[in-house]
Amino acid sequence: MHLSIVIPTLNEAAQITQTLTRLRAQSPGVDCWVVDGGSVDQTVELAIVSGARVLHCTGGRGAQLNLGARHAAGDTLLFLHADTQLPPDFEGEVESVLSQPGVVAGAFPLDIASADWRLKLVMWGTQHRSRWLQLPYGDQALFLKRSTFEATGGFPLLPIMEDFVWVRSLQRLGRIALAQSPVLTSDRRWKRLGLVQTTIVNQLMILGYFAGVSPQRLAQWYRRY
User: Fold this and answer.
1) For the whole model, what pTM was predicted?
2) For 62, which of 44, 100, 155, 214 could close a Cys bridge (C-beta 3.0–4.6 Å)?
3) Is residue 27 domain-resident?
4) What is the pLDDT of residues 44-94, one digit of tens each?
5) Helix (H) or strand (E) run with residue 47 in it
6) Which DSSP category does 182 fall into?
7) How, if at all, do strands 142-145 and 76-79 pair?
């Protein structure tokens, strides 16, 4: 397995050094691409210093992820958020998951870096949604073979929910499985709005999508928060 990691960024100076430093310590030779969406802070400079290859892309996160995948050299792709840390043996876990019969893609269980007990409920719900509905989200470090990625046509170029829509397209190709060890992600999203409001907004976006509201309208609503 030759693994490439693609990290979309937009003003991630506070997170990117820690993420890349840990990644290099875990897997020194990994093929890592940071695709920046127009940061006005030090994200790009810090990514370069940390040893990542950097690309520039406008058009949203779906476009960033697709561009990174096109440049990556690996036959296996992993899409990682800038505020998310992979578990120690992530390469072995990726290979193990993708070797299972019928599995077309995988993700990791979610752990949130917070002492707030209420976020344990969020984590519990995420594990059950991912395992039983086979619907992990982008913050769980989605991974798959390049050939499968190309079969989906890549991430849709949407202003919001590109990972949700893409995972649903993967479900038509086969099973999406969970690795054993969790990724550790920042709690900043829940801190910004508060746990209850964040959960409500996220669920409203999903309900709106299934109700036929356009992604452009959903993105306008989401930005109000």
Assistant:
1) 0.94
2) 155
3) yes
4) 999 999 999 999 998 899 999 999 999 999 999 999 999 999 999 999 999
5) helix 43-49
6) P
7) antiparallel
Whether residue 56 lies inside any domain: the answer is: yes
Relative to beta strand 142-145, strand 103-107 is antiparallel
The one-letter amino acid code at 68 reads G
pLDDT digits (tens, 9 = 90+) for 175-214: 999 999 999 999 998 887 788 788 888 888 889 888 988 8
- Report the number of distinct structural domains present in the chain: 1
From 125, 66, 74, 64, select the one nearest 98 (Cα to Cα).
Answer: 74
**Residue in 126, 101, 99 with CA at minimum distance from that of residue 111:** 126
**Residue 117 DSSP class:** T
- Provide the strand spans (E) within 69-126: 76-79, 84-85, 103-107, 110-113
Look-up: residue for tokens 């950097």? 54
Phi-psi label, residue 224: left if phi above 0, alpha if psi -120 to 50, beta otherwise: alpha
Note down the domain range covering 173. Answer: 3-186
What does the buried/exposed string (b/e) look like for 212-222 if buried means 16 or more CB atoms within 10 Å of the residue's CB?
A: eeebeebeeeb
Question: Domain for residue 76, yes or no?
Answer: yes
CA–CA separation, 91 vs 51, rounded Å? Answer: 19
Please indicate, yes or no, if residue 214 is contained in any of the structural domains: no
